[in-house]
Amino acid sequence: MAILKDGELIADPWVRIEADRLPLGKPLLLSLDDWQHLSRSLLHWDQPLGLILEPGDALESLRADLGRFQLIALTFPALTDGRPFTQARLLRRRYGFSGELRAAGAAQPDQFLQLHRCGFDTVEVATAESTDLWKAAVGRYAGFYQGAERGTWERGAFLQPKASEQPAAASWAY
Amino acid sequence: MYRYDEFDAGFVCQRVAEFRDQVDRRLSGALSEEAFKPLRLMNGVYLQLHAYMLRVAIPYGTLSATQLRRLAHIARRYDKGYGHFTTRQNIQFNWPALVDIPDILESLAEVEMHAIQTSGNCIRNVTSDPYAGVAADEIEDPRVYAEILRQWSTLHPEFAYLPRKFKIAITGSPHDRAAIKVHDIGLRMLRGSDGQPGFEVVVGGGQGRTPVIAKTLRAFLPAGDLLSYLEAILRVYNLHGRRDNKYKARIKILVNALGIEAFRDEVEAEWQALRREWSLDLPQAEIDRIGAYFRRPDYPATEEDPFALAAARRREPDFDRWLRCNSFAHRQPGYAIAVISLKPEGGIPGDATAEQMEVVAELAERYSLSEIRVTHEQNLVLPHVRRADLFAVWSALQEAGLATPNLGLITDMIACPGLDYCNLANARSIPVAQRIGQHFADRQLVEELGPITLNISGCINACGHHHVANIGLLGVDKKGEEFYQITLGGRADEAAAIGEILGPAVPYEGVVEAVDSIVQTYRHQRADGEVFLDTLTRVGLQPFKERLYGHSEGR
Amino acid sequence: MAKRPPDQPKVMTANCLTTGAILYLGPKGAWTRDFSEAAVTGTAEDAAALTERAATAEAQGLVVSAYLLPVTLTDQGPQPLGQRERIRAAGPSIDLIFQPAKVR
């Protein structure tokens, strides 16, 4: 799996727990279950932490912990499962998550535009051709009818974000 | 009518380019069928029994003469010379080649039309009262809000991959001509105590294998809160609707599982949170901008000569009957709403040939301010006809085979394409409708029977709205043979109800006889002044069962 | 041991990717619009061979939605089983465009 960010393939520094051992000195990606079991022992962890969420995971109970994560990966179990789009917007706007939002799993190039508009920064992709598809998708429309987490909207201005609620610029680069 | 500005026009062209790119990638092999299918559906392209099918949106059922001419052109150039108007105010072409579809869409975009979200698990074409803006009983014109909903739902970034399709209907009249209670969300326009416009919001209606009449979610929602409230409903549905079973994925199942109170609490909590994050009110400038397109037209002054009309009615009994059956009260004095039935006896419900579309387009230009409406009963409407022109309109329709006087009568059947075209169907619908139409070819008798809705679906997905018909026919497959289950007592208006199953399904060959038996029972039982539903309500199913199945059955 | 019932004869069908037209797989591996020219399987091995050819054609982007449909052998040759496949093979059971004159 490669990672696409702003239409470019990037190296993925994140590693997962393998055989119940914490890989030292690397940004660590945890499942919700891992996090619930390990959060205490990770109190003094000095590397970035990331969280992988499934579409059914409730976000409300994580509110207090979100500041611990530099990355949240939202899982698309199938192309047709649209829950992560809502999860992403909630994380960005309601819970103020400003780290990296990643689309993991079965998201497809023809969803790049929605991913972008819903606030995702990066996406797991299978092939290198995805870079062109990303650029085409994100540049295709001059504007939209709805406000979103990103992208211009020229018309209607239906559901515009309140100025004070604009999410902070992504601050996850490290 | 709403007209595209530069932004709308550019947007639709950008969508065509995106779809053209997707088709190219499919044809080159870069996209698998599995990956392409949800993408083509989201733009109205099905693979049906014999060929691809393209479903084009007719937003809230309004068409210009220019647009209808273009549909005729597409039917002739890319299809087999006809199109099929559907129960959701769309038109379907049954035979386009996939390679031609991007060109068809480009041609549609030139006349401000598209196929965006006419299928797929997203927010579908918003439907409305076909008499919006002209009905004499209208409280508020729903088209402004229908257009706002069209724009808001178009390429909404969050709601393109819902658990299942999502249908919204809106009406502005107390008499519901948009079947809002069998939609995922139904909106009925009201005036609040302070005179401000708003909506009753009903939710969780639908047909299919679990027919449900929608429940009231909010008795009054101020119009300015419309989008934020709908956004909250959609968000609750997107997160919590079932995705493990497509037959349990519609919002009606979620509403029933939670109960309407708990569902309302969820929506309310989401709405309150949303309104802290987003500017809530619909921008008044935008309501005004869109509203300007729907201002009452300047109706040319008209002098009605009641004697001339009466003389024509005496001279031409067929015109007289058409006037009684197919014209309706207009809010502008001297004008009428004229409905063009697409249900000739023995014909294919909802079908129109390219030539017929052109005739209607020309009549609209001459007599109806260039406007046409499409009804969910699969008919066309000339919404602004001077009463003085009615005879001329009728004469031209008569010439084109479009003057069938049967609105709301038993031969004004709704029928889905059925097994003759559809991949999902279990049984045919069209030939059943044709046989019933031929059987009830006596127009005087049909008028005497009074209002009866008869709808036919070729499978339990219920595209033919059989659940909400006074007489519903549902095609089922019994060991490879076509059978039809009969329901009685459904209706789709403000008193919407689901029909009750009458008894065992009847074979294809017995359908006409069965319908005739039901009609004979009604005639026999009918008291003075009763319509079919009155009689049915009074006497119940039993006399209908006895006559159709004999005394031993159906107890 | 009970004798195995003879294999149900079958025909491979699909739609043309570019036009959507119904196609049947012929004995020489070419696709045809005409049901009567379709190859009829006699054995499970035949069916497997047709399935493989169809899968290749799908992978090549020639056809879409391929499947085997059961047929019955008659004096007039193989006939599709079931109303759906009969209509698919013969076209809609109605005149595509209604001609009022024909009804009256």
Strand order of the largest sheet of chain C: 3-2-1-4-5
Number of helices of chain C: 3
**N-C termini distance of chain A:** 21 Å
Order of helices and strands of chain A: EEEEHEEHEHEHEE
User: Which regions of chain C are unreliable across 5 or more consecutive residues at pLDDT < 50?
Assistant: none
Structural class of chain A: alpha/beta
**β-sheet strand percentage of chain A:** 25-35%
Relevant terms:
heterotrimer; B: 555 residues; 6-stranded mixed beta sheet; 5-stranded antiparallel beta sheet; 18 helices; 17% strand; C: 104 residues; alpha+beta; 3 helices; 28% strand
Describe the fold and architecture.
The complex is a heterotrimer of chains A (174), B (555) and C (104). Chain A is an alpha/beta fold and 174 residues long. Chain A is built from four helices and ten strands. Chain A has helices at 32-38, 83-94, 112-117, 130-139; strands at residues 2-5, 8-10, 15-16, 28-31, 49-53, 69-76, 100-105, 122-125, 144-146, 153-158. The longest helix of chain A has 12 residues, at 83-94. Chain A is globular and about 50 Å long. Chain A starts with a strand and ends in a 16-residue tail after the last strand. Mean pLDDT of chain A is 86; it is low at 164-174. Chain B is of the alpha+beta class. Helix content of chain B is 38%, strand content 17%. Chain B is built from 18 helices and 21 strands. In chain B, strands 16, 17, 18, 19, 20 and 21 form a six-stranded mixed sheet that branches. A five-stranded antiparallel sheet of chain B has the order 1-2-5-4-13. A five-stranded antiparallel sheet of chain B has the order 3-14-15-12-11. In chain B, helix 1 packs antiparallel against helix 2 (33-41), helix 3 packs antiparallel against helix 12 (354-367) and helix 16 packs across helix 18. Chain B is globular. The N and C termini of chain B lie far apart (54 Å). The model of chain C has no long low-confidence stretch (mean pLDDT 90). Chain C has a five-stranded antiparallel sheet with strand order 3-2-1-4-5. In chain C, strand 1 (10-16) and strand 2 (22-25) form a beta hairpin. With 104 residues, chain C is α+β, with helices and mostly antiparallel strands. Chain C has helices at 44-59, 83-90, 100-103; strands at 10-16, 22-25, 31-32, 63-74, 77-80. Chain C contains three helices and five strands, in the order βββαββαα. Chain A binds chain B through residues 79-83, 85-87, 89, 93-94, 108, 110-111, 113-114, 117-118, 129, 136, 140-148, 151, 154-162, 165, and chain B through 7-8, 10-11, 14, 17-18, 21-22, 30, 35, 38-39, 121, 148, 151-152, 154-162, 227-228, 231, 235, 238-239, 243, 273, 276-279, 282-283, 286.
